[in-house]
């Protein structure tokens, strides 16, 4: 236990914080009913958390190098626990969104330090094992979130998806203080405040613009102004990082095709695999009438195949180039998403099973490999930057995926409902996407309800098909990009597994030739 205690402590926190990225998915209909939340508020319940992870992760990593990684991890876990309590006690949707953002801030402090704590604790093959376990936990947490969320929502109440974090947080803090040693960055480490601020504005403005575009129009002045702000913030971020002596993200890394390919894969992983699942969950519960538990169990094929692929992939694909493992995984995610895009008004939950299983297999392959691939694509001294970039872009991909697919789903629903005789197809589409099917049916005379019910089923299926098709194309394109861009080392650069390649770790990890999980 002494040897692997730090790994258990880090993985416990990682599992909890990543579980909370997706655990709310199955609870969305209950949240909408309990707090009278709109579609955009439901999107922000998810994205407020994911966006904080994406926007502040690199800056938090730099802060941890200055203050101390263990100290930041423990403080983040404590903040995460306090915000979880506040989320569970939220009296309205606005308060829940705000506390989800605070919860995301605590999760950011935790997540920013996970890889650096493992890198400081383990060397050689032990580090490869630790990274493999951490990657499997990361993928499994996101996949298990909807299932556990359904069990807690139906068995207790949706508020318990947040209350359950409290005992786990206490355990994580106690174990960390007992088993994990303190570590810091090198001399002269500092926080890149300007880079953190500009990247936060870019990520927030982009997500806000996409979420609001369906309500106010893509061509509206508000959407155009918000997107312009995002572009300016991104340009300033690039300018700041290029001029900074210690940038939080060294943009020169993107000159490497391998690093750029891994980053593309990071964005696509969470976006394509999980970005449209919130709307699938709403469809399952509000249109098909499944309970939260049954709605969560529908997603078991995704979680199960993710675990199996992560566990077996490391053994069966031992020694395989990263580009093949990650590229194949993304292609499977894309194929799985496409397989979920053939719904119609009469479809039931079994129509999703095969696609979910295929996508889960892809998640299981990519998640354990992508962090190691990022570390392998850069010099050991830049391992922290690479690991932070992977986690940042994964969460940004999820936040943007939820926003984009929600907008696409609602837009396609509106198009489908224009022939249903509704006075406000746009409002009806947003209400339907937000779980308001029963309210829409209650507004029409009883004799008209069967026809409207069929129209709502057809509209939601059409919206999900559009989201699934776009997610599928994204996964396939990202898989192709990884296969084309990511390259293994020259034969002379390959080292034997377990031999030291310097301060950063073993030769296999540093070169990127081998996959150890």
* SS element count, helices: 21
Structural class: mainly alpha
Task: State the low-pLDDT regions, or none.
Answer: 489-517
CATH class label of the largest domain: Mainly Alpha
* Share of residues in helices: over 70%
Q: How many strands in all?
A: 0
**Cα end-to-end separation:** 20 Å
Major beta sheet, specifics?
none
CATH-defined fold name of the largest domain: Growth Hormone, Chain: A
* Average pLDDT figure: 80
Strand content: under 5%
If you compute it from the alpha carbons, what radius of gyration comes out, rounded to the nearest whole angstrom? 22 Å
Shape summary? globular
Domain count, please report it. Answer: 2
- CATH architecture name of the largest domain: Up-down Bundle
Instruction: Give the SSE order as H and E letters.
Output: HHHHHHHHHHHHHHHHHHHHH
CATH superfamily of the largest domain: MFS general substrate transporter like domains
Subcellular location: Cell membrane
Organism: Actinacidiphila oryziradicis
Domain Major facilitator superfamily (MFS) profile: 6-490
Main location: membrane
Tell me what you see in this structure:
With 517 residues, the protein is mainly α. The protein folds into two domains: 5-192 and 246-488, Growth Hormone, Chain: A (Up-down Bundle); 193-245. It is built from 21 helices and no strands. The chain is globular and about 70 Å long. Mean pLDDT is 80; it is low at 489-517.
